[in-house]
Please model this.
Amino acid sequence: MRSSTIGLIVTGTLVVASGATVIALLARDDPGTNPARWKTETLTADGASALPNPLHVALADCPGFSLSSPVPQDSRNAPGAGTYMVRLAPEHTALWVCTGTVEETGGARAAVAVQLADRESMTSMNPALVTTPFGEVVRVDRAFGPDAVPRLTDWLVDHGGYTYAFGYLHPTQDARYYEDMEAMIASIVWDE
Model:
C-alpha cells in the first residue's frame, strides 16, 4: 500500500510539473509586451485611391496633418479639439487623437506594451508593427472587457515628438471600413 501511495504522489507531481511546463511554453508563444516578438506587416493601401475628400486634422497641442477620406468632413469637429472624428457610416467611426508627447507616452511601442499588460478597462490584443509610407505604426485590436470581441483597432505612431492614435471603432464582427481606414492612414501628410 505504501508503494502505491508513493507512486500516486510521484505521478501527481509529474502531471503537475508537465502542466506547468506546457503553460510556460504557451506563455512564451504569446508575443505579449515585447515588440521584438510582435508580428510585422506592411500597409499596402493606396492613400490616393477612392478617397475623394481631403481633410485637415488640427488636434490640441500637437502638429496637425492632412489626409484623404471616403466621406466629407464632419462639422462637429472643432479646430484644436483633442479628438477628431470621421463618421464613415452609422456605428463606424474613425478617430484621430494626439495622446501626448513621446516623453509622456514613452512612444507608440511602449504605450501599446503598457496597454497589453493592463486588462482592467480595455483588453488589447494582436499587436503588430506596421510599415507605412511615413514610417512605423503600431497596430493593436481592443475589446471593451476581458471576454469581449474586439470593436476597436488602433494604430499608434510617433511623429514630431508626439504620439498619435488613429482608431477605427466598429460593431462586433463588422469591420467593413477597415480598408478605408488603412487608406486614410496611408494618405497622411504631416504639417511638420
Q: What stands out?
A: The longest helix spans residues 2-29.
